Amino acid sequence: MSTTTTLPAWQLPDRDLTTRLLTTQRQQNVAYAAQLETIRELESRGALPEGYTSTSAYLATILHVTLREARSRLAQATGTLPLTWKALSAGEITAQHAAVIAEFLAAAPRWLTPEDYTVAEDTLVTLAAQANPSIVRRAATRLKIYWDSDPADAPGSPDLDHGLDPDSVPGSDSGSRPEEAARPRREFRWQWTQGGRFRFSGNVDHETGTLIEQLLVPLAAPDPAITPGTPDPRTPAERHGDAIAAIVDLAARTPDLPAKAGERAVATVTVDLETLRGTAKTLVTEDESVLTAADLRRILCDAKVYPAVLGTEGQVLDLGRSTRTATNAQRRALAIRDRGCTFPGCDRSPKWTTPHHIVHWAHGGPTDLDNLASCCERHHRLLHHSGWKIVIREGAVHWIPPSILDPERKPLRNTAHNPPPTPLRTATMSTPPPPRQGS
């Protein structure tokens, strides 16, 4: 028996902690599938002890779950979900994934053909293997809208009401003076700390605050689990900080950004070519800020910093080659090809992404479509500072996980942006979906 399953967690090396997390989550998924199989057999036999009027009531009692949860498990166990069942039994998706898919397909339109039903299930199961249940639910909602259903009835539509009454929030603008409607009072204070951190505070009017909140809520959502059982480790404050960074990153790339001295805001870093290619600890910008070589290589993907690359004799070899950055036409082509961030399970749209050079330009990588991939700010940083790699196969971007997550390092393709499957409905079609009982 492996030491990762016999030793207590505190005795395991760091790498084996991750291995145990992945193994136990897969075991949990398989065990849940086995429980559903037992529930289905119990229901089919009608083998309830005396005193219980329904299988759901019996399950709620003996499993110590709510009646709602018991009904959900019964629906999953008795529904026609062969692909979901297969993935769950293999440990590839979680109980939450199965619940989302079962809930959605139970409400599928009656005019769907059996083929439509199977394609829809396959679409969601494929996404579930790489994304968290909330991403799968959003994909299901998009599919339901595509089926001409009422989106308000989509299962699990999120209610983003935080329960905050604007009139009860200190400093709110509910009692603003009339003149403030024409010139809202907004304040922003900032300073650099001795440790090189940018600290800020302030407040804005209600309208601007609402707009900021609408940007922050989706951007600060937890990242999809890289694998089942590995939730986003960031705190809410850290997620909101990353969301602010993504908003600033987007604003910095807009063509309408004001110019300074005829040029968009940039910084210049003086660095020799070998240092840029190597693993130097730190580099200094023109304003004496400090960057690591790894950070510089990541930032250079979208030319927020211009490198003044020097040869051995100090001559300027490159001062921000224009060919390093993707053209507007290439960005539009990437938006069409990638549909957004290419990290498995990420559903950020194209406007929140930047082109990443798969082979870095400093290593001779061209700024061509077959050497570019769309990444959101969060996953762009992950790519440059982790063991993830990118390859393009048959015109599609695939991410290769580090060996600690997958020893076989199988390439993964993001399916979160895939369009809904086209129904086979015709004007006269009235074929019902597959029966909901048995499998």
TrEMBL record:
Family designation: Belongs to the Rv1128c/1148c/1588c/1702c/1945/3466 family.
Full protein name: DUF222 domain-containing protein
Organism of derivation: Amycolatopsis rubida
Basic and acidic residues: bias regions: 176-186
Limits of the HNH nuclease domain: 329-381
Alphabetical list of InterPro entries matching this protein: DUF222 (IPR003870), HNH (IPR002711), HNH_nuc (IPR003615)
Annotated region described as Disordered, given as residue ranges: 150-186, 403-439
Short name of any one Pfam family annotated for the protein: HNH
Biased segments, Low complexity type: 166-175
